[in-house]
Fold this sequence. Notes:
The protein is an all-beta fold. It is about 0% helix and about 20% strand.
Amino acid sequence: MDALETDGSVVLSAAVTGTQEGACKSVGLQDEVTVELVAPLRDRVLLDAFTGRPVQYDQARGLTDRSELN
């Protein structure tokens, strides 16, 4: 997981490594990862690099209160 930080946003991107050819046996599995930011997220927009769309705060670690992102 990588993060590109600007004054107004944080863009998160992920990559899968160690892939093999053929059908994926792990469909639907998720891993939790931690990304250390240079500065707290605070009021910056959290964006998904794949879609370019904002990530809902409740999707980021299940948080529902923006104050938890400081």
